[in-house]
């Protein structure tokens, strides 16, 4: 029987290579990738998946040529504007996670507006990771804990003990369950500094196809493979069967 993960995350890799293979500008690959985003979102909603997160732009991507970065930022603004009515109509909540300090002002305004407009939606939560890195996330969480620790000392209170559960609440993904499955397209087999803490017990799937070619049938294949896996979380198979 098909097992439906609560949270699936996708590293959308291969837009540039898809464009290069066709003699197109890289930004055209990113534009075509939006079609795959739409298909993946529709599929996740149809399947009853609660959280779908997409790695759209990493902290390291700021090092790319400024023409590509600016084009991608404009494309994201355009996509948010055009897709907002569809998200609201389909009861989809929209969130963006990452370091906002380097984002253009127009994009930050668009993000604020769409998050507000969809905040009462109760269906699928669509999360876009933008200007994000796993190392940055862990560092900013550590900084928060240090500030809380210092504040407690100043007040004369006993600092709160740091546990895995407590640390998770300090991450930028606080309130979002850790992913059950991470899909990375294009055949590359690495996390690329994505969800380093949150992926500790995640399943992985690395299809060879490039992101602009990813469609619902490919998403279904990922679910089929996930259904065949036994997630033990450090326990034995016999312990899992008794639960």
Task: List the keywords.
single chain; 243 residues; alpha/beta; Undecaprenyl pyrophosphate synthetase; six-stranded parallel sheet; 8 helices; 46% helix; 14% strand
What are the SSEs and their pairings?
Blueprint: E1 7-11, H1 15-21, H2 26-47, E2 51-58, H3 66-89, E3 93-97, H4 105-117, E4 125-132, H5 134-155, H6 164-168, E5 181-184, E6 203-205, H7 216-227, H8 237-242
Parallel strand pairs: 1-2, 1-5, 2-4, 3-4, 5-6
Helix pairs in contact: 1-2, 2-3, 3-4
Structure commentary:
With 243 residues, the chain is α/β, with parallel strands linked by helices. It has a single domain (7-133, 178-242), classed as Decaprenyl diphosphate synthase-like (Undecaprenyl pyrophosphate synthetase), CATH 3.40.1180. It contains eight helices and six strands. A six-stranded parallel beta sheet has the order 3-4-2-1-5-6, sandwiched between helices. Strand 3, helix 4 (105-117) and strand 4 form a beta-alpha-beta unit. Helix 1 (15-21) crosses helix 2 and helix 2 (26-47) packs parallel to helix 3 (66-89). It is globular. 31% of the residues are buried. The mean pLDDT is 94.
């Amino acid at each position: 029987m098909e097992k439906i993960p609560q949270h699936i995350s996708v590293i959308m890799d291969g837009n540039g290579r898809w464009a290069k293979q066709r003699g197109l500008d890289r930004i055209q690959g990113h534009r075509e990738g939006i079609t795959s985003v739409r298909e993946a979102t529709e599929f996740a909603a149809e399947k009853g998946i609660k959280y779908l997160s997409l790695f759209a732009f990493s902290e390291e991507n700021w090092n790319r040529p400024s023409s590509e970065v600016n084009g991608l930022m404009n494309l994201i603004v355009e996509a948010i504007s055009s897709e907002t009515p569809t998200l609201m109509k389909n009861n989809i909540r929209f969130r963006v996670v990452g370091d906002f300090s380097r984002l253009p002002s127009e994009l930050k305004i668009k993000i604020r507006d769409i998050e507000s407009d969809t905040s009462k939606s109760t269906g699928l939560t669509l999360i876009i990771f933008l200007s994000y890195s796993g190392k940055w996330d862990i560092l900013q969480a550590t900084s928060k804990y240090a500030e809380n620790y210092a504040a407690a000392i100043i007040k004369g209170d006993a600092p709160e003990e740091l546990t895995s559960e407590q640390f998770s609440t300090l991450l930028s993904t606080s309130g979002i369950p850790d992913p059950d499955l991470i899909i990375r397209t294009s055949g590359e087999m690495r996390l690329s500094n994505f969800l380093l803490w949150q992926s500790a017990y995640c399943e992985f799937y690395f299809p060879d196809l490039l992101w602009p070619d990813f469609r619902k049938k490919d998403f279904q294949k990922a679910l089929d493979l996930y259904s065949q896996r036994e997630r033990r979380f450090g326990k034995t198979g016999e312990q899992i069967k008794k639960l």
